[in-house]
Amino acid sequence: MKAVIFDLDGVICFTDRYHYLAWKEMADEIGVYFDETINNRLRGVSRMASLEIILEKASGEYSQKEKEALAEKKNAIYVKLLDRMSISDLSDDVKRTLEELRKRGYLLAIGSSSKNTKKILAKIGLGDFFDAISDGTNITRSKPDPEVFLKAAEMLSVTPQEALVVEDALAGIDAAVSGGFSSAGIGEAATHEKVTYRIEKLSDLLGILQGK
Ligand code: BG6
Ligand code: MG
User: 16-82: what CATH class?
Assistant: First the structure.
């Protein structure tokens, strides 16, 4: 194993609540039912694909232009919430794990569907940390498509067989599997039947990668 590719939201930091609050405000405004269970289906899924899932509960039809305006509205609320984040949102466990993997010489990358990746990394003090960042701004197909991880591997000049993907989303494990990567699943992703390693916290990776 030469590299580790980390999902961002739910693995390196915990923005789930902010995504939920922003979608909820947008959905309330247009009178569409939205709850935490629906929010769970949005994990790892791109902004526009998330909106399509939310609009399953809408009574009327929305044009492409209206959908883009709704996604923009959600993002404006979300970005405002992100302003609350700071270096204190980087947990000790995540920090320790990243530092130890760096010390052991692994190449480290981000593979996230989010177009806000760089903003979030800067907020939590990891703006310059990773060797490569593959995110929502350089892909055309969102997870479960493997594109975001394949691009990350390409940026690092490693093959999928040489990289471990770390994910909290079921769609993220699907993406890792179809791209030919081994995977470590945390949270809901640990329940995926095809995940290679199940972890409870990020530092569990340090044992898994021992000698690999
Ligand atoms: C993923 C989140 O990381 O990014 C999804 O798990 C989110 O919930 C997606 O929809 C896209 O994020 P953004 O920041 O581009 O709207
Ligand atoms: Mg995630």
Answer: mainly alpha
pLDDT at position 212 is 78
Q: Which residues pair with 167 in a beta bridge?
A: 185
Ligand 1 atom with minimal separation from the 75 CA? 16
Q: Report the CATH superfamily, name and number, of domain 3-13+87-208.
A: HAD superfamily/HAD-like (3.40.50.1000)
Question: Which atom of ligand 1 sits closest to the CA of residue 112?
Answer: 3
pLDDT given at position 211: 75
All residue ranges of the chain with pLDDT < 70 are: none
* Residues whose beta carbon lies within 6 Å of some atom of ligand 1: 8-9, 19, 42-47, 50, 75, 112-116, 136
Q: What tens digit of pLDDT does each residue of 191-207 get?
A: 999 999 999 999 999 99
Ordered DSSP codes for 172-196: HHHHHHHHT-EEEE-GGGGG-TT-S
For the chain, the domains span 3-13+87-208, 16-82
